[in-house]
Write a structure and sequence with these properties.
This protein is of the alpha+beta class. The strands form 5 sheets. Strands 3, 4, 5, 6, 7, 8 and 9 form a 7-stranded antiparallel β-sheet that branches. The protein is globular.
């Protein structure tokens, strides 16, 4: 597979920093060490204090087929890091660890493992020539130094070709001057045409709380941008808030201080807690749904026979669109929860080259975690998501960010992949089942000691209830879907009976969404069924 680069060169139309890896090789007792140095400066912003996100690269060169290492190396400032290699079909088997130095204090972190549970989507997007294999990206906060060590697993295993470190500076946005252009790339112009709900002020940061289901929907205000004293927003039409107030929503709090210690849920008081579901061996339905090149305006009838492997072709009646080419929203959609738009978290829409693809129906929601760190404030959330967008496009080589939605530990919901929050956008989150589902990712690591807050669990429940409700799907039910690829759990073509709100590990062989978040899913399903955003509530 050829090295990527075409999309990066045309991303912003701006001169990017040039990073060079010095060809200095030192023979060590355990293998070959590649010493890399950097050069160049960061891109300048437009003069208003904003700065675009940037991807910095350090090659992990060397002749040892089983080992690479990078000694302490100074770099330009970055906040998110991962490892990538040339061929996305070359699965990495082994370990990769990094240490980083905090830019503010000079303190070095402990060694951190990188996760390799990500796969390029099984759709045409994953077949592009510039798609790379990669680890999950790790949020480390503003850093200016790095060490890395990569070891293959076993005598017969080699590290992948063109191995490198990818370091992302998330940039900085200024209110009204965000990178999100709200353009006509099929992204619904910022917050999704037809959403009909203004997002809360980007200047406000929510405090974590223990929300319980009520008779009226509640809202979560978006987090402030780190290093941005004026908040983040996007230009273009998507950045202009509508004048109508959302039905049943509360106004955003004024300038509450961001919290670094969200309230943890207490057993017996958390509305998302509930008895675990018992697995079933009997399918309760037939495999449904295939992706469509355009979003449908009405629900297609369920095929009484198992579906074939999903394709890019629609299976139902030809969809209709309005004169602008944007699909009409459902007229029976329940009230929309508060969702921070791409424009408001500062998405750089110039990175997204192709319009979104759509499904006929969202049959299930898969819950993920970002597998990064829990040591973030909710004010960091927009920057974390901007960095993930840059990593997914410029490192993985995908067209857009993979997840459809993000939730942070304060319970704030963020729009992920462009195409309209109320539309069945085809994402890149659950290999083998993207063609039927929407992906919600909780910021943080819930496998290594992290515990999801009650606010986060309730936000996931409300979002899942609303998203599934748009398609008449019960969040407490089960559904049978046909695996579109071999996932390590299911084989291609196998009928998989899953909960309509499932964890990533239910569809793909991974630890995601982490043990503590996965164990919370039964309660999240119950809370979703009782959510004011659920159909009929």
């Amino acid at each position: 597979m050829s090295p990527r680069g075409a999309r990066a060169r045309r991303a912003n139309g701006k001169k990017r920093a040039v990073w060079l890896a010095a060809g200095v090789v030192v023979l060590g007792g355990t293998g070959v060490t590649a010493v890399a140095v950097s050069g160049g400066g960061e891109d300048a912003g437009p003069g208003d204090g904003s700065r675009p996100a940037n991807a910095h690269v350090l090659a992990l060169d060397g002749k040892d087929p089983k080992r690479r290492a990078l000694p302490r190396t100074e770099t330009q400032t970055f906040s998110l890091i991962g490892v990538s290699w040339e061929d996305s079909g070359d699965t990495f088997a082994g370990t990769a660890q990094i240490r980083t130095r905090k830019a503010a204090t000079g303190e070095w972190s402990e060694w951190r493992d990188l996760d390799f549970d990500v796969r390029a989507p099984e759709s045409a997007e994953g077949d592009a020539s510039d798609v790379r294999g990669a680890s999950e990206p790790l949020w480390v906060g503003p850093s200016d130094g790095v060490e890395a060590r990569v070891v293959a697993d076993g005598e017969e295993t080699a590290v992948p070709d063109a191995l490198r470190l990818d370091m992302i500076d998330p940039g900085k946005t200024v209110k009204g001057k965000g990178n999100g252009n709200g353009g006509d790339k099929g992204n619904g112009k910022g917050n999704g045409k037809g959403n009909g709900k203004p997002t809360a002020s980007p200047d406000a940061t929510p405090e974590p709380s223990d929300p319980a289901p009520t008779d009226a929907p509640t809202t979560a205000a978006p987090s402030a941008d780190p290093g941005d004293t004026t908040g983040g927003s996007g230009g273009g039409e998507g950045s202009q808030p509508p004048t109508d107030e959302p039905t049943g929503s509360a106004s955003a709090p004024e300038e509450p201080a961001p919290s670094t210690a969200p309230t943890e849920s207490t057993p017996g008081t958390d509305p998302t807690e509930g008895p675990p579901d018992e697995p079933t061996d009997e399918p309760t339905g037939q495999p449904t749904g295939r992706p469509s090149a355009e979003p449908p305006t009405s629900e297609a009838p369920t095929d009484p026979t198992p579906s074939t492997v999903p394709t890019e072709e629609p299976t139902g009646p030809a969809p209709t669109t309005d004169p602008s080419g944007t699909p009409e929203p459902s007229t029976t959609a329940p009230t929309t929860p508060a969702i921070v738009s791409r424009a408001d978290w500062g998405a750089d829409e110039s990175l997204v080259q192709d319009p979104p693809a759509y499904l006929n129906k969202v049959d299930a929601v898969f819950v993920h975690h970002t597998a990064g760190t829990n040591d973030y404030t909710c004010a960091d959330s927009p920057a974390i998501i901007r960095a993930i967008l840059t990593f997914h496009v410029q490192t993985n080589g995908w067209n857009d960010i993979g997840y459809n939605f993000f939730v942070d530990k304060c319970g704030t919901v963020f729009e992920g992949r462009a195409g309209g929050v109320d539309r069945p956008v085809l994402g890149a989150h659950t290999y083998g089942f993207n063609s039927y589902s929407s992906g919600i990712s909780l910021l943080g690591d819930y496998e290594n000691g992290g515990t999801p807050t009650a606010a986060a669990k309730q936000a996931i429940a409300d979002l899942a209830a609303w998203k599934l409700g748009l398609h008449g799907v019960d969040p407490e039910a089960k559904v049978t879907l046909t695996a579109a690829a071999d996932t390590g759990v299911w084989t291609k073509g196998q009928a998989a009976t899953l909960n309509t709100v499932s964890g990533h590990r239910d569809g793909y062989a991974t630890l995601c969404p982490g043990a503590s978040l996965y164990s919370a899913l039964p309660g999240i399903r119950t809370a979703a069924g009782n959510s004011p955003y659920a159909t009929g509530n």
